[in-house]
Design goal:
Mean pLDDT: 92
Pfam family, one: Glyco_trans_1_4
Protein name: Lipid carrier: UDP-N-acetylgalactosaminyltransferase / Alpha-1,3-N-acetylgalactosamine transferase PglA Putative glycosyltransferase
Number of strands: 13
Largest sheet: 7 strands, parallel
Organism: hydrothermal vent metagenome
Number of domains: 2
Shape: globular
GO molecular function, one term: glycosyltransferase activity
Distance between the termini: 18 Å
Strand order of the largest sheet: 3-2-1-4-5-6-7
Keywords: Glycosyltransferase, Transferase
Length: 380
């Protein structure tokens, strides 16, 4: 009888876009693979690919204790029905409530802390509650993967997790066959008369440095010392339920002022990255930035902040530049620095980024670690 591996995440979209390579690898290894997530447009796509799917309901934007208890019960019932041998879990609520449900069902779990979000950036009541729940639930986890050493050490120092169950992963990994630099990277991008395009891809929340990006754009547009045409693009969903959400009205104002161009939601992000000259992410903290990995795989130079989860992707001055977090002026200085580089230097930076991803962040590295951990848990 096939051993069963369940994957629990807060959206089916997340599974389809970031974990599909892992699902295929698990199936190729002879496992029965079950996706457990809220229903969205990508749930049916997973089923069309032959993966078993079970729906759960998660309120990703709230901390309603009644809804969270219902989630715990929902997960327990699904686990009892599916009877997985090992459960892989991602994002905060599956990591917490999925672990508790798995403990009740007697199933080993592998958790993934892909970023700290507002849980550690803030110190309000909900953040304190989340840390308390992490401390309680992670005590039942057989393995906890982190995407950078800083987050791992922070959890250990705060006694949220036992050091012996922790390990590191290079993010979710990049499918290097899927993310290939376009031939000549869209020739128009490097034409002398084409505008220099800075692209920021993120959810529209302050923690991603959206305010600093807009302020830096204004500084550069007001700078008369350069004659180059330049555009600043924002790509990503609005996130109104988040306490640090950027409002649609604010973005509309920036567009009216001519500061930024807002692209909204786009399914094929790589196609937009290929139209940019440089990808910018002034985030306050990341687990390991997926956007920066994709940009590097597509051979784009980067400007990002010198913070955990961002600095790991950039060798300063080699494949991009690191700037001071929460500092629009310093961000603008480094963006102007990128703009001033000759075309051959931009191309060289992009090639260095691609090489770094090939050597350190290949999806195959991540999948091999998962397979090893799963095999060990099943054997034991």
């Amino acid at each position: 009888m096939l051993k069963t591996i369940a994957i629990v995440i807060n959206t089916s979209w997340n599974i389809y876009n970031f974990r599909l390579g892992l699902l295929h690898a698990l199936r190729d290894e002879g496992y029965r693979v079950v996706a457990i997530a809220p229903k969205d447009d990508y749930s049916a796509k997973l089923e069309q690919l032959g993966f078993e799917y079970h729906e759960i309901k998660i309120n990703n934007k709230g901390t309603n204790p009644v809804q969270d208890l219902m989630l715990l019960g929902n997960l327990y019932r699904v686990f009892r029905k599916v009877r997985p041998d090992v459960i892989l879990q991602y994002t905060i609520k599956p990591n917490i409530y999925g672990t508790l449900a798995a403990k009740l069902a007697g199933i080993p779990v592998i958790n993934n802390i892909s970023g700290l979000g507002t849980v550690f950036l803030n110190n309000n009541l909900s953040s304190k509650l989340a840390r308390m729940l992490y401390r309680f639930s992670l005590g039942f986890a057989q393995k906890v993967f982190f995407q950078n050493p800083y987050d791992r050490q922070l959890f250990i120092d705060n006694r949220l997790v036992k050091p012996e169950v922790t390990d590191l992963l290079p993010g979710s990994g990049i499918n290097l066959m899927k993310f290939q630099p376009a031939k000549l990277a869209k020739p128009d991008v490097l034409k002398s008369d084409a505008p220099f395009v800075f692209l920021l891809v993120a959810r529209m929340i302050k923690d991603k440095g959206i305010m600093e990006f807009s302020a830096a754009a204004k500084i550069i547009l007001d700078d008369a010392t350069h004659a180059q045409k330049v555009e600043f693009w924002l790509l990503g969903d609005l996130y109104p339920g988040n306490p640090t959400a950027i409002s649609k009205q604010e973005i509309d104002k920036w567009q009216t002022d001519g500061t930024v161009k807002y692209l909204g939601h786009v399914d094929d992000v790589s196609a937009v990255i290929n139209q940019a000259n440089c990808v910018v992410l002034p985030s306050y903290r990341e687990g390991l930035s997926r956007v920066l990995l994709e940009a590097s795989a597509l051979a784009k130079p980067i400007v990002t902040t010198d913070v955990p989860g961002c600095r790991d992707v950039v060798d300063d001055g080699v494949n991009g530049y690191l700037c001071i977090p929460k500092d629009a002026e310093n961000l603008a200085i480094h963006m102007l620095k990128i703009m001033a580089l000759p075309k051959d230097k931009l191309i060289e930076m992009g090639k260095h980024g691609r090489l770094k991803v090939e050597q350190q962040f290949d999806e195959k590295i991540v999948i091999a670690k998962y397979l090893g951990s799963i095999a060990l848990l099943i054997t034991n």
